[in-house]
Structure formats: C-alpha cells, structure tokens
Write a structure and sequence with these properties.
Blueprint lengths: L4 H14 L12 H8 L4 H9 L2 H4 L4 H6 L4 H10 L7 H8 L3 H15 L9 H18 L2
Length: about 140
C-alpha cells in the first residue's frame, strides 16, 4: 500500500463507509477495496481503489468526496466507475477503457469479484456473474 495523506484519508473514508457491510461470504466488505488498493502502483489508483464502491454502497456521494479534497483525476475515475443501472453493463465497462485509473481499478475489481474461492458455496448465479466479469476483463484488455 502506498501511504500518502490522500491514501490515508481514503482509507479512513473507505473504512467508515463500509465498516458495517459484509461481502457475499459474510466477511467484512472493507477487505475488498483494501485488497484492490494493495495492488495499485500509485497514489491516484490506490485512492480510487479504496473509494471505488463508496458512492454506490454507502451514504457518501461523489460530491461529498469532491468536497473532501480528492483530486480531479480520482474524481473522474470514480465517476466512471459508478455504474448507472440504466446503462448496459458492457457499455459501462467499455467507457472505462479511456481512463487509465478507472481501467486499472476495474480490472482488479473484476479479478477479485471473479474469484469464486472467496465464496463458501458458489451457486449458478455466481458462476454466471464470473463469466460476465471474464467478458468484461476481455473487453478492457483488448487492443
């Protein structure tokens, strides 16, 4: 993990936003963004990884994060990573390709969410979701 003022602030925000949430296996959800952040090469991708689900899965909104002082490169990536349900999933993924920060975080997110070993008893919908994520990874990594 890269420790800067911005990443430490993002760690605190991430923890507060997700502290009472559990993932599909019943583990603390906050482990997921921390896992992604550990893989990131620089401050902007680390901050984005930590915050990537905050605006979708908590009461903290993108405007709140902007007011907290996160930079525009991070805010642009977070905006792209927030999936509008009205937009077809693969169109949403395709839009991430143009932003290197959003793309790096989404690739790590998809890989982690595709890891069925995280689940105690994967069901058919988990397997189908992993297939969809594999398609998204292929789309993001294609030339």
């Amino acid at each position: 993990m890269i420790y800067t003022d911005a990443t430490k602030k993002a760690m605190r925000v991430c923890f507060v936003a997700h502290k009472d949430q559990l993932d599909k296996s019943g583990l603390p959800y906050v482990f997921h963004p921390f896992h992604l952040a550990e893989q990131m090469p620089d401050e902007d991708t680390t901050v984005t990884a930590l915050l990537h689900d905050v605006a979708e899965d908590s009461d903290i909104r993108l405007d709140d994060l902007r007011k907290m002082g996160f930079n525009e490169r991070v805010m642009n990536a977070l905006s792209l990573l927030k999936h509008d349900p009205a937009v077809p999933y693969m169109d949403y993924v395709r839009a991430l390709k143009s932003d290197p920060v959003a793309k790096a975080v989404k690739l790590a997110d998809l890989a982690h969410n595709s890891d069925l070993s995280r689940l105690d008893d994967p069901c058919e919908s988990d397997i189908e979701r992993a297939k969809k994520y594999a398609e998204a990874i292929a789309l993001l990594t294609a030339d």
